[in-house]
Design a protein that fits this description.
about 290 residues; mainly alpha
């Protein structure tokens, strides 16, 4: 907001100086009349550049939000299937998966905002210190914690799907195992999409060129308005309003180009945690069978 107000003030001062100078010197007034046609040639490029930039930035924001929505749905479905098919035979593995799913959203948030999530991991995984230590070692080797968590979930599924020592098959049904693997792939895709948005911003050359063209347009605008015979006050007001609108659009595009500081990641992470907790709590109220 401060950047916008400062630019509007500068544009207004510039437009006042052009209008005052034009009315004071007749020769200058005759010269600026030739600039009226220049405004027509600059309008289309600047509007096109602002539109393309804003649309691209909005695409990044919407893509990131959709990725978080997919992650939320995938964790809810994954935990529901785990409670139905893994929990009865492998309660310890199912509880460990639930802990990892709770941590997943928070570690994802920490990765995108470069926040320290070690205290939260220690709190959720306090009863399984070996798992906490494994997550720390993965981080030291450069593996992002969300990727490590997804790998561990896949590893736990593989472990629970093996036969017991007596030869009795206590594994997850193949169709359920396939569905669980699809959900893990959805989680990986969501993490990958947001990571791509994080590490690949819009080209700075495009941003700089848009700003330069915008400055050029706002510099020529008062000259063209004076050339049309408009008095000083309407010129200043017109330039101020136009500057506020165009510079505001440019600032909006610049801000939403980096979507993660704007997104409610705390609420999204909390939602994932609540969904996992609800799936686990529903197992206590399920009737034992069909009469």
């Amino acid at each position: 907001m401060h950047n916008i107000i400062g630019a509007v003030i500068i544009s207004s001062i510039w437009s006042y100086g052009i209008a005052h100078f034009s009315h004071k010197f007749v020769s200058f007034n005759m010269t600026v009349k030739r600039f009226a046609i220049t405004l027509t040639f600059l309008q289309a490029p600047i509007l096109l550049l602002l539109t393309l930039r804003t649309n691209r930035a909005l695409d990044r924001l919407l893509e990131s939000r959709k990725a978080w929505g997919s992650l939320n749905r995938a964790t809810r479905s994954f935990m529901g299937l785990v409670c139905a098919h893994v929990l009865p035979e492998h309660p310890a593995a199912a509880c460990l998966m639930a802990r990892y799913l709770v941590v997943l959203g928070w570690t994802f948030k920490g990765m995108l905002r470069n926040e320290d999530d070690r205290e939260l991991i220690d709190s959720v995984m306090s009863s399984v210190p070996r798992e906490t230590e494994w997550l720390r070692k993965c981080a030291l080797t450069g593996v992002r914690r969300p990727h490590a968590i997804i790998y561990r979930l896949r590893n736990l599924l593989s472990t629970t799907n093996r036969s017991s020592g007596s030869g009795k098959n206590i594994g997850v049904p193949p169709v359920i195992l396939l569905r669980l693997e699809e959900l893990l792939s959805t989680m990986e895709s969501s993490v990958g999409i947001c990571n791509r948005v994080l590490i690949s911003p819009l080209p700075p050359t495009y941003t700089r060129h848009t700003s330069r063209v915008l400055v050029l347009y706002l510099s020529v605008l008062p000259v063209a308005l004076v050339g049309m015979g408009i008095s000083t006050l309407p010129v200043v007001v017109t330039v101020a309003i136009t500057s506020y609108i165009l510079i505001g659009i440019d600032e909006i595009g610049l801000e939403i180009e980096h979507p993660f500081p704007l997104m409610p990641l705390y609420g999204l992470s909390k939602s994932i945690q609540k969904e996992v907790e609800r799936q686990v709590m529903m197992t206590d109220n399920v009737p034992p069978g069909i009469d």
